[in-house]
Amino acid sequence: MNSREEILHLLAPLTSILRMPDDLIGILAVARRLVPVLRSLVRVTDEKQQPLISACLAGLEQVIDGASCVAQFFPEALGGGRRILKGYYASHPHYCVFWHVCADPELEQQYGTLLVSMFPVQMRLERDRTLINTVADPAYMVGLSLRQLTDRPDESLRPFLLELPLEPMHPQALLEHFENHMSRLGLRPLVTGTLRNLGYLHRALQWFETGVWEVQHHLQTGRADTHKAGRHGAIDGTQPSRSISRTLEGDDGLPDIGVTQFVEDDGSTHRHDRDLDFSPPGDGPKRGTLIAVAPRSASAANRGDRRALARNVARYTAQAITLANQQLPVTHATLSGYEMELLVDLIDNLTTDDWGEISASDRPLVAAWAACRLFLSRAPEAIKTLQIRKVRTAPHNRARVPPTILWTPTTGRIWLPVASPKHVTPRIEGEPAIRTLAAAKGFELEVPPALTTALSRVEHAQEPLFQRSYEPEFAQLLAALNQTRGTALHPDRVGRLLAKFMAQLGGNDRVYEFYFRGIPPNQHNPCVYSAVPVSRLQTLYAGACARLYQLAGLPYPAATATAPTSAPEYGATHVGSLHVPTRASVRTTVLTVLNAVAKLASEAGVKYVERHNAYTAYVAFFLLATTGLRGVSSLLPAHFDIDRATGLCFVSDKDNESYEQSRIVWLHPMLLDQLRAYSQHVTRLRQYLALANPEGIDHLDARDRLVSLSSHTAPNRNRDLELLRAATPSLFLLTKHGSQLTPTFPLELQHLLGSTWQLRIGALRHFFRTELLHLGVPGPVINATLGHGERGEGPWDRFSSLPPLQWQRLAATAITKICDASGFQVLQSPLLRSLSTS
Q1: Model confidence at 620, in pLDDT bands (50, 70, 90)?
Q2: What is the spatial distance between Cα 145 and Cα 143, in angstroms, rounded to a whole number?
Q3: Which residues of 220-250 are buried (b: 16+ CB within 10 A; e: fewer)?
């Protein structure tokens, strides 16, 4: 294989049945997983298809043998992380299936056989995908279902997957197998809910046999449309719908009724290349009707609506007052004070009638299990591994960190393990403690007396404490309690109670809840960017326990309150992100870059390119450290995204085509002054570019042109970015040779910051969120600033519960402290005659 053409020629037979990306991204991994499928397919396919399958198999085997040559001509062939093919999920759904590997070893053989049996179905879907007239692309949905089955399945789906055939079957036989086992297990092949993957595979098998893709009308269960406003200053360049005006003639003596129908053009609907919840009707064309009603009739209708609204408001207000009288927050995740009192009493007293259904020998173990579920908020699998340590050891010894929950009776403290985000540990030369916060693998807590008493009752001669799971007995105990006391207790509600209290006491930031419960942080974006002080977790835990006893009407011993460990910064240790730079590291980097720019400005003979790039690196560092923007190559792509009067900036740094993940961030006045100084610097730079690179001036002039971007009624981010690429972004770098204008690539910025900064530029996003967390900013305010807010948590979102002025005030106070602690200052252009700061 000596050329790209020869490699493509080897793959030509496979291309006829399986569409592949032009750059062959990940082809080596796909080939290794596709070869066994084709070998099995050769044995079960008909004689007409066997030569084609054999040719595909031979070509793939040669590609695997010549992997080094393929990587030479196609650098993307090696692939990368698990989600490296995310951009190809919609365009090449069949190809992307073979990039994923089954995560459950018990289902690996069944999944491999399912791929072989579904291969003819996917081949035909690839061929006829344009002929199937449905809202959702069937080929994409089937590929998505097969890819999601590689993850560990839901418990309701696992019994069905275990009974999948172990030998390849014809699609018609596989359909019969599906229907027989679904009928026996009581499953329905729906395309919504937890069985949606099974439902789409069943629908595809039916289509393979009948040629008709059945579409059932159902309620939309996915995410509703959340189109946000287009870019600041954009002009509507598209017409998303057309209107049809008609007049309905009324009866004798009644006025006519004007009707206007709005129908969205089918050609304007967008099929997004992304994996979201299943909501096929959400992507279809929208239709609406506007009816002109007589003023008197409209007034009557409005009065009726207002009466219904008033009744609903009164009912909701009464419910809120009832909850407030119980001193409870308005949430479905907590318990009433009566239920808390019953639980604590149930754990302390094993002789009550509520224990009647539990044998006397099991009562101490069930009580200890219930206490652990209530006071530790860990899953049953984690509680089962709890161990006893009679002699106190040093859990902070990194060589011997306990991987399970560990209780030390002599000290009354318990060790809870915590998992860090799945990130690569930063490579730092010298002393890592100076540049990043050390992340611990767990933390210790001083437990309340009820938990200590419950654990002390159990004979703990053996380890672990629980030889099996006592979750069924705990659920049985709660069910009996519900029947006799009229409560609504459930193990999951009990297990989340204390963690929810900690999140509420911590400014409604769920980061505390996730790390306390030991949930993998990669399931929650705010956790990935946070380093939580252990001392803060200890304080919140003590406060949550005190609140539980208060709501239950029981005295809480003050002696059990945990004294936070003193430390010079944040606390003795942290749990969470491995990429959070320390304040000292950020401040040192700021001072280093300031000195470097001053030195370049004062020295004679230094090229303007070096001065400009060093100055741009400082401005970019200033921007990222005080806004939490993602370290993308195009920072602030459009100058009109910034409103200089209010300091608000439109950001769409990691977004989809419809701007659904866009947000508004607030820029500090000092940062606005710095960006204004940078604009003056660019004006001075034009004189240098006029001699070295006249084309660069054209790119700078293109920024002031009025661009017709999409509007909020028909957002199209991809098209907007193509139009904006013709101009230069607000921040840019210059090449050493030719003075070409280039984006602010993260690796280039990292190199320009000097040896004091050896982290990724994206680490500043971790720094920003951790700083806000440490400064006591509420969780919704932090999430809205970083783009992690849920529905209703954005200052200008629909149904928002976060007032914009309150969000700006809280964020401004914290960002001001970050600027002062980091040593940022407004730096004038190094191209001017004298370097000055303000």
Answers
A1: very high
A2: 5
A3: eeeeeeeebebbeebeeeeebbeeeeeeeee
